[in-house]
Amino acid sequence: MKNRIFLGIVALVISFFLAGCEINVPDKEYDINGIKVTLEEGLKEKEQDGQTLYLQGLDMEFTALKEPFKNLSEFNLTEKSTEEDYAKLSIESYNLDSEVIVKDDITYFTYEKEVNGKKYFYLASVHKSTDAFYLVQYICLSKNKEKYEPKFLTWDKTVKFD
């Protein structure tokens, strides 16, 4: 009896995958290192040099880099600079082939990059707090871009800083 139930469950799972059905992962609010954001559940905090926050999941990653205004003065950015100014500097600094997009109160840019033989899609948004700019990046495999890009933009509207 137990074997039949087990085989039935296995058959059901396989049929979902063969039918192209996705299992939707619920969202969760993360509050780490002064950054609050809603993302998919199951992400784990990891250490990554140079990042204020790095969360890694099976299919996507999230990074946030805080850059205080005082550290950006050599690039002629101050507290009076805009998110668009910081986005342009980020694109130039990382030598990316990208353009700044301002849409639905989100300032962002996208790009693709190959890492260890795999092609990744990045959606990088910029945010301004009272003392810093933040470069927030959402990352997935390029083949998953259509699935994740709308989610990245929705999640970006939840980003808050202490």
Describe the structure.
- This protein has 162 residues and is an alpha+beta fold.
- It has a single domain, classed as Mog1/PsbP, alpha/beta/alpha sandwich (Protein Transport Mog1p, Chain A), CATH 3.40.1000.
- It is 27% helix and 39% strand.
- It has a seven-stranded antiparallel beta sheet with strand order 3-4-5-9-8-7-6. A three-stranded antiparallel beta sheet has the order 1-2-10.
Helix and strand content put the structural class at alpha+beta
Report the β-strand fraction as a percent range.
35-45%
Helix and strand sequence: HEEEEEHHEEEEHE
Class in CATH? Alpha Beta
Radius of gyration of CA atoms, rounded to a whole number = 19 Å
Spans of at least 5 consecutive residues whose pLDDT stays below 50 are: 10-20
What order do the strands of the largest sheet run in, or round the barrel if closed?
A: 3-4-5-9-8-7-6
Let me know the largest β-sheet.
Answer: 7 strands, antiparallel
End-to-end distance: 55 Å
Global morphology: globular
CATH homologous group name: Mog1/PsbP, alpha/beta/alpha sandwich
Our count of helices gives: 4
Q: Label the CATH architecture.
A: 3-Layer(aba) Sandwich
